[in-house]
TrEMBL record:
Its cofactor is Mg(2+). Belongs to the purine/pyrimidine phosphoribosyltransferase family. This is Hypoxanthine phosphoribosyltransferase. The lineage of its organism: Bacteria, Bacillati, Actinomycetota, Actinomycetes, Micrococcales. Residues 18-164 form the Phosphoribosyltransferase domain.
Length: 183
């Protein structure tokens, strides 16, 4: 799929590249200040958070290690079931460490609640969440997310790591898909 085609498949741009970079820079500074010199581990959730992680960590004023987890939540459907399976676990032991979960999007919040509880059971010093996007549905479950990039409407979005059938992750913006893509 060429770039022109990819662009035409978008119906509406919700967040531009400039807005994403500016907001991630703010969040990076807030995260850095929050830990006040103590080390924290960034834990990305594959695959959607790859681009958020790359830009967020480069915007940090200093060094921070990262690790990755992969979970399956949606399966083939489009609604989160809350049934989560670990496909790839962390490489590192988080006992006694500050952890920041880095996510692309919180929709129902079910996936992240599960991940957070799972990580908290491993005896970390703390667990916080940083997500680029959050949908209103997320407000329905009790999920305490300290750092949120943008609250967006309850629509399916792609780009900047988010996919439709594994496509569009490399779009530089976040947007909604045109109806012709689904049909
Ligand atoms: P829940 O509902 O458990 O789901 O918070 C979170 C995960 O679901 C995926 N997700 C999306 N992926 N566009 C996407 O490409 C979307 O609009 C969308 N909403 C949810 C995503 O993997 C997220 O981590
Ligand atoms: Mg996804």
């Amino acid at each position: 799929m060429d770039a022109e085609h990819m662009g035409k498949d978008l119906e509406r741009v919700l967040v531009t590249e400039e807005e994403i970079h500016a907001r991630l820079a703010e969040l990076a500074q807030e995260i850095w200040d929050h830990y006040a010199g103590e080390e924290f581990l960034l834990v990305g959730v594959l695959k959607g958070a790859v681009l958020v992680m790359a830009d967020l960590m480069r915007a940090l004023p200093g060094s921070a290690p990262m690790d990755w987890m992969a979970v399956s939540s949606y399966g083939s459907g489009t609604k989160s079931s809350g049934v989560v399976r670990i496909l790839k676990d962390l490489d590192t032991d988080i006992t006694g460490r500050h952890v920041v979960i880095v996510e692309d999007i919180i929709d129902s919040g079910l996936t992240l609640s599960w991940i957070r509880a799972n990580l908290e059971s491993r005896g970390p010093k703390s667990v916080e969440i940083c997500t680029l996007l959050r949908k209103p549905e997320a407000a329905k479950v009790q999920i305490d997310c300290r750092w949120v990039g943008f609250d967006i409407p309850n629509e399916f979005v792609v780009g900047y790591g988010l996919d439709f059938d594994e496509q569009y992750r490399n779009l530089r913006v976040v947007g909604t898909l045109a109806p012709h893509v689904y049909s």
